[in-house]
Amino acid sequence: MNTFKSLFGWILVLGVLMIPVLCQDEESIITVCQEEDNDFRVDCLLEPKPNYHTDYEFSMSKGQKEIIINTNISGIMPEPRFRHNTFVTELEPYGFRLTIMSFTISENTTFICKVTKIQKTLFVELDSVEPCSAISVFLLGSPWLNLLVPLCILQLWEAI
Ligand SMILES: *[C@@H]1O[C@H](CO)[C@@H](O)[C@H](O)[C@H]1NC(C)=O
Ligand SMILES: *[C@@H]1O[C@H](CO)[C@@H](O)[C@H](O)[C@H]1NC(C)=O
């Protein structure tokens, strides 16, 4: 009985810790991580506006300068150094994943993602980039997810 109680307690604690992740606050729309083979990944979970021609653009800004990494907006070219070592795949149910091969950030960097003219940014501190495996184990493949979605809704409800 006690074991059951403490297990329940842990589930609650986990749930509370994970609320910000699951409830998709501003920050979690864009996530970055480092893959085992040293590729750098930027996930952008922006939902395209309906009735628009979907396009995407990934860039980063350092100081005043915006550096285009990958886009399929016609007429915009990425920086030469990102022209042949990046690719973008679509995520389900929506969103885009940018992969930069053999890349890691060498200073604090702001990543910008645009989908159908909606723009989000994420400030990434040097040395704060986590391995992708840590993130996917954390989020996916966990039965907690089903349990936590109601918590997320509850939190939203309380916020109103
Ligand atoms: C850009 O990619 C989106 C999603 O794959 C696609 O729907 C759209 O047609 C592409 N735009 C161009 C100009 O290729
Ligand atoms: C990176 O950002 C952090 C947090 O804003 C800051 O404390 C640190 O000084 C920055 N590092 C560099 C090299 O600018």
UniProtKB/TrEMBL annotation:
**Main subcellular localization, coarse class?**
membrane
Alphabetic keyword roster: Cell membrane, Disulfide bond, Glycoprotein, Immunoglobulin domain, Lipoprotein, Membrane, Signal
One cellular component (GO) term of this entry: membrane raft
Signal peptide position in this chain?
1-23
User: Which branch of life, at top level?
Assistant: Eukaryota
Name its GO BP terms in alphabetical order: cell adhesion; integrin-mediated signaling pathway; positive regulation of focal adhesion assembly; regulation of cell migration
Q: Which GO terms describe its molecular function?
A: GTPase activator activity; integrin binding
Q: Where in the cell is it found?
A: Cell membrane
- What's this protein's name? Thy-1 membrane glycoprotein
Source species taxonomy: Eukaryota, Metazoa, Chordata, Craniata, Vertebrata
